[in-house]
Task: inverse folding
């Protein structure tokens, strides 16, 4: 059963259509990558899910229930355009944000303390945000998002502003939250983290969803039967494959991309072995990045 | 809703805990009372007592110059040249020289010697005393008796009474009403400006620090706006209350001190007056002020002040909040601030005209329009305003702030999420019309 279902959302601003009939099913305990170029309508969609703005048409349901102002508290949202009160102390600020989410004071204090300890910020309780480095402020921001243990976490570019070490810490926290049962919507332009973290993805372009499903299924769908071969000797196309391109690697080996015309990779390999000395043989599975670029470009050219 | 309470609490506490707030709250009444006390003290002081010698060669005025707090008169009998030396050497502050006056119809040669230029008021008072005395002497010489002269003296002081519609007589003092009105009107004007601007800056801060989107995912925009408006109103109200309490405590201490001193000096002057057989009205200025303050309906004025203070603030701060939501920085806010501040400034500027005729048509309308009524009505209230006028003005003001809050919230909900848009009035109108 899906945790969040978005059904046929339409939203238009006075001068343009921001979303045009977008539907999504976000499975429970998944890490769902919401992808799309700038201005595609991702932020609008997220704002509709979090009830910041209202859709013109369509439905949003959390665990099968129509979204309400009460239910929206089960969401933790880390916006891309984020910040904190600069003059407010870390502890007070987290307490305020937690209580806005409906936590009572003592619970909130307990959780804030344990989170600050976990992210090594304990001694910063009484410091103002101004005194913190950008990375630390981002950590505080992350804590504010997850304090109320939401069922659904919406993270818009969660790693921006983090150095690789801290980004890794946050990544592990996200994975841990998923282990504990949270579902995560992940909106980013950093394809390597999508590749690494997401199990589902959806691609939005020009106000419409153009792709969605399990990451592996999508990759499967975009597999085109090309292989990367490194070898010594000379290679020409035959009945088993077509030669697409060739180059020489740094190690002095030849490297070619070939497109198989036979189903069985073993057969393909056999036909290669008979001709050249193979050093490596790898199927070219498209990366999310490649799929993203090909789809967005294709979409824009239509 | 619990959330709006949390927002109000945050807005209130972060501001009240600020050092600048605490300093202003305690310093302002001290300054206020201090300045008044200083003025009072200075006017009470009037410089040091002057030693003045009187050389009366005519012998006509042996008891004319009597020492008082300000001047000590000493009659001397010596040649003019040696008396002048006293002035030259700075032993005394002045010398009155009255020569032999052979012709009282044309008294000539009276001189006043002083080390510098004497004050005009001192010279005038000496002139008047001599003139009066010569007049008396002439009248006596023409055959009138002292009794008749005493009988001629008449003293009129006008006592103005405010006859209210209920037929009840009150001592009126338009001076005090003016003072109270001005202070009240000006306080409201200042508070609307200071706290309205705070409201605007608070919204801009939330917008530029980008926390607004974090908060808006757990709070309705309207609650966030109202929480801020109400929270800051509570800050202003706290400050006002503290000022009233502190000022009245300090003020009453001050008044008691001055009253005690005034009483003492009054007894002293009475003693002097008795010995000098001069009749004068005993005057205690503090008592006088207290009496005229009592002529104003204090509970009504205070109640109206609190009402106009809060409602006027609500009306304007909603608009200030809307401006804050529309812009990205304080600098951009200027162009939208202008139309908001115009009615406020107009209200303050019209006070002079209102004062000339507090019950005229102009004053009436200015105190009905919600944008000017908080300031203008407070100018009028101490003069006594018919209750129906006050009621109507209040109802209109409440309607006014409900309208501005509604208007502002429609702009606010869109504005706070807009960054980098070039905003003009057309854009604002579009936001306003936008459906949810």
Result:
């Amino acid at each position: 059963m899906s945790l969040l279902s978005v059904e046929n959302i339409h939203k238009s601003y006075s001068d343009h259509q921001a979303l045009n009939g977008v539907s999504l099913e976000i499975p429970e305990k998944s890490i769902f990558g919401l992808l799309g170029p700038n201005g595609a309508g991702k932020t609008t969609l997220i704002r509709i899910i979090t009830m910041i703005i209202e859709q013109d048409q369509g439905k949003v349901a959390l665990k099968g229930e129509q979204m309400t102002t009460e239910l929206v508290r089960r969401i933790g949202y880390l916006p891309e355009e984020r910040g904190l009160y600069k003059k407010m102390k870390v502890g007070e600020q987290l307490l305020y944000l937690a209580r806005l989410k409906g936590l009572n004071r003592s619970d909130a204090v307990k959780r804030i303390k344990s989170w600050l300890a976990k992210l090594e910020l304990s001694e910063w309780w009484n410091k103002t945000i101004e005194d913190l480095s950008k990375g630390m402020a981002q950590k505080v921001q992350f804590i504010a998002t997850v304090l109320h243990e939401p069922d659904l976490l919406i993270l818009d570019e969660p790693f921006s502003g983090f150095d690789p070490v801290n980004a890794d810490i946050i990544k592990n926290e996200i994975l841990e939250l998923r282990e504990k049962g949270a579902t995560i919507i992940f909106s980013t332009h950093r394809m390597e983290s999508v590749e690494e973290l997401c199990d589902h993805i959806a691609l939005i372009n020009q106000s419409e969803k153009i792709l969605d499903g399990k990451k592996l299924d999508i990759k499967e769908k975009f597999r085109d039967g090309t292989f990367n071969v490194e070898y010594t000797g000379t290679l020409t196309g035959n009945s088993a494959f077509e030669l697409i391109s060739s180059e020489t690697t740094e190690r002095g080996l030849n490297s070619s991309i070939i497109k198989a015309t036979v189903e069985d990779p073993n057969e393909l390999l056999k036909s290669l072995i008979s001709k050249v000395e193979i050093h490596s043989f790898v199927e070219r599975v498209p990366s999310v990045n490649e799929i993203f670029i090909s789809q967005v470009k294709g979409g824009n050219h239509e | 809703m619990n959330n709006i309470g949390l927002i109000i609490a945050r807005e209130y506490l972060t501001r009240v805990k600020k050092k600048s707030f605490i300093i202003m709250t305690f310093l302002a009444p001290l300054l206020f009372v201090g300045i008044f006390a200083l003025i009072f003290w200075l006017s009470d002081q009037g410089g040091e007592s002057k030693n003045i010698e009187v050389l009366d060669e005519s012998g006509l005025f042996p008891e004319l110059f009597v020492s008082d707090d300000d001047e000590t008169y000493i009659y001397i009998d010596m040649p003019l040249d040696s008396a002048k030396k006293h002035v030259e050497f700075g032993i005394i502050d002045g010398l009155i020289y009255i020569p032999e006056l052979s012709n009282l119809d044309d008294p000539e040669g009276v001189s006043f010697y002083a080390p510098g230029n004497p004050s005009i008021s001192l010279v005038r008072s000496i002139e008047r005393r001599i003139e009066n005395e010569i007049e008396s002497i002439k009248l006596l010489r023409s055959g009138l008796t002292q009794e008749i002269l005493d009988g001629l003296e008449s003293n009129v002081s006008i006592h103005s009474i405010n006859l209210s519609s209920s037929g009840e007589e009150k001592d009126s003092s338009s001076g005090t009403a003016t003072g109270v009105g001005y202070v009240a009107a000006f306080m409201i004007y200042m508070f609307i400006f200071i706290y309205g601007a705070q409201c605007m800056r608070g919204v801009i801060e939330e917008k530029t620090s980008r926390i607004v989107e974090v908060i808006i995912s757990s709070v309705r925009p309207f609650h966030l706006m109202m929480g801020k408006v109400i929270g800051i109103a509570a800050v202003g109200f706290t400050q006002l209350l503290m000022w009233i309490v502190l000022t009245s405590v300090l003020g009453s201490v001050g008044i008691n001190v001055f009253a005690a001193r005034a009483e003492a000096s009054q007894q002293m002057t009475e003693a002097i007056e008795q010995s000098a057989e001069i009749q004068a009205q005993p005057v205690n200025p503090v008592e006088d002020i207290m009496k005229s303050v009592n002529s104003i309906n204090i509970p009504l004025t205070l109640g109206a002040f609190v009402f106009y203070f809060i409602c006027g603030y609500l009306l304007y701060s909603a608009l200030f909040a809307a401006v804050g939501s529309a812009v990205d920085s304080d600098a951009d806010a200027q162009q939208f601030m202008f139309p908001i501040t115009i009615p406020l400034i107009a209200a303050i500027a019209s006070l002079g005209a209102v004062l000339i005729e507090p019950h005229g048509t102009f004053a009436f309308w200015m105190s009905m329009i919600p944008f000017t009524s908080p300031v203008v009505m407070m100018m009028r209230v101490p003069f006594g305003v018919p209750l129906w006028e006050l009621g109507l003005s209040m109802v209109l003001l409440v309607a006014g702030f409900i309208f501005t809050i509604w208007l502002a919230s429609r702009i606010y909900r869109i504005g706070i999420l807009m960054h980098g848009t070039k905003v003009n009035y057309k854009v604002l109108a579009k936001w306003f019309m936008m459906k949810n």
Notes: Chain A is about 35% helix and 30% strand.
